[in-house]
Amino acid sequence: MRQSYRIIPVYTADVSGVCSALYELGGMTVMHDPSGCNSTYNTHDELRWYDQDSLIFISGLTEIDAVMGNDRKFINDITYTASELHPAFIALAGSPIPFLNGTDFPAIARIIEKETGIPTFFVPTNGMHDYVYGAGIALEKIASRFVKAPDWQKKRDVSMRRVNLLGVTPLDFGPQENVELLKENLKAYGWDVFSTWAMGDDLKTLQMSGEADINLVVSAVGLWVAKVLWEKYHMPYVVGTPNQWLVEDISRALEHTVTQKTDPVTVYLQNRMQQEAEITLIGEPVTMGSLAAGIEKQYGRAARVLCPLKECDTLLGQKDAVVLGEEAMEEALKSARIIVADPLYRPICPKDSTFYELPHVAFSGRIYF
């Protein structure tokens, strides 16, 4: 029963992560599910749902089609809809039922691409991972299939360095104005944000990402893209969120990495205080790790990060830890005296602790926005 949650919610699932990452790119995202995944996504996870159009569909999988393996209906519905709407690409996202049935999504994607002539790919979700996994792989697919090789002969203004921000979704950063603050922070240090993966930019802009000098991974979601662009075009990358306290350090790391052609560096793990942490932060490792490093730099108070998300071990420092499950998190917080986290964590925090609210859309949805 240690995997059950009775007080706090779970984090946004991988299927919603796919939809969030691809929302603004002009493609068509299809969840293969009876309906539940779509209702959860549009009522809880997506800030842009009522203000900005996107081609997000649910297949309406029926029991008889699932049992009999009637994939042709799924394929026909997608090809007909695509012929009417002409999306830039088609993304298929799985859910628990087709996962249990062993639905051959890669084969279905190949059939749809052949019949429509539209790039089609499958993001291997099953509703059992968190949003970092789904959004990360979705953007990885975009990087693998659409980013063009840089034109090194093309002349451009070199007075400002170009940087791509990787891993920007409302699930971690909330509304667009928060993203604009990150851009302004970097601009103040001479960096021109060339593309943002994937808020505020379209697919055409992302296709030209290879023209930038370097990539900045601002959340764990962006790490998949950074690795693809490193392998394809040897584009260097740095990891860290450019908040107001850490942006100077990140700017120096970006400049050093570009000029010296060094290996990737995780900025917020450098020069951290080694003493026992006074402040505990809970959440996504890059954004909260950068905030922890900023707090230490600004106030001289040691901080640690408790990460409730999987596959993030490499993004954590020595004092930090991956803590999975409600019981484990409640136990890890017993000695915490100052806590920074989403408000919905408050019920499992010690009564005598000081709690600072920092809403996280991937945890509490639209409640605090």
Q: What is the residue-mean pLDDT, rounded to a whole number? A: 91
Low-confidence stretches: none
* Fourth-level CATH superfamily of the largest domain: Nitrogenase molybdenum iron protein domain
Structural domain count: 3
H/E series: HEHEHHEHHEHEHHEHEHEHEEHEEHEEH
Over the alpha carbons, how many angstroms does the gyration radius reach?
21 Å
What summary fits the major beta sheet? Answer: 5 strands, parallel
Main-sheet strand order equals 6-5-7-8-9
**What's the quaternary structure here?**
single chain
> In the CATH hierarchy, what is the architecture of the largest domain at level 2?
3-Layer(aba) Sandwich
Question: What is shown here, in short?
Answer:
This protein has 369 residues and is of the alpha/beta class.
Task: Explain what this protein looks like in three dimensions.
Residues 28-241 form the Nitrogenase/oxidoreductase component domain. One of its GO terms (molecular function) is oxidoreductase activity. It comes from Hominiventricola filiformis. This is Nitrogenase component 1. This protein is α/β, with parallel strands linked by helices. The chain has 3 domains: 14-131, Rossmann fold, CATH 3.40.50.1980; 161-268, Nitrogenase molybdenum iron protein domain (Rossmann fold, 3-Layer(aba) Sandwich); 272-364, NAD(P)-binding Rossmann-like Domain (Rossmann fold). The protein has 15 helices and 14 strands. The protein has a 5-stranded parallel sheet, with helices on both faces. α12 links the parallel β8 (237-239) and β9.
